[in-house]
Amino acid sequence: MKKDNKKVKKTTDKIENINEAFKKLDGIIEEMNNEKITLEDSIELYEEGIKVISNIKKNIDTVEKKLKILEQKEDE
Predict the structure, then answer these.
(1) Distance from chain centroid for Cα 29
(2) pLDDT band (50, 70, 90) for residue 11
(3) How far apart (Å, rounded) are the C-alpha atoms in residues 38 and 54?
(4) What pLDDT score was predicted for residue 16?
(5) Based on the number of CB atoms within 10 Å of its own CB, is 48 exposed (0-12), middle (13-18) or buried (19 or more)?
(6) CB 13 within 8 A of CB 37
(7) Is-contact 21 55, C-beta < 8 A?
(8) Of 2, 10, 30, 72, which has the highest C-beta tally within 10 A?
């Protein structure tokens, strides 16, 4: 059972990381909506946003894989 608790903890950490990443992405979008932002800053924020989105996707993929494994174990 302890191994399962560690897996649940890691999955919970991933979800928290996903939530934090979405908050960061919201901040980036808010900054990009500022009318006074320069083109250079806008491009930098865009690149940072793409990196955050990529990280979110990786974390979601990891959580989905873990959930599928748990579902398969339940079916056994």
Answers:
(1) 16
(2) low
(3) 24
(4) 75
(5) middle
(6) no
(7) yes
(8) 10
8 A C-beta contact, residue 49 and residue 29: yes
For the chain, which residues make up each domain, given as ranges?
A: 2-75
Q: Check pLDDT > 80 for residue 13.
A: no
pTM of the model: 0.72
The angle formed by the CA atoms of residues 45, 49 and 50, to the nearest 5 degrees, is 120
C-alpha to C-alpha distances, 51 to 7, 17, 41, 45, 56, nearest whole angstrom: 26, 14, 15, 10, 9
Half-sphere exposure in the Cβ direction for 53 (13 Å, CA): 9
Q: Which two tokens stand for residue 12?
A: 């919970």
* DSSP E strand boundaries for the chain: none
Ranges 12-16, 18-22, 51-55: which has the least confidence: 12-16
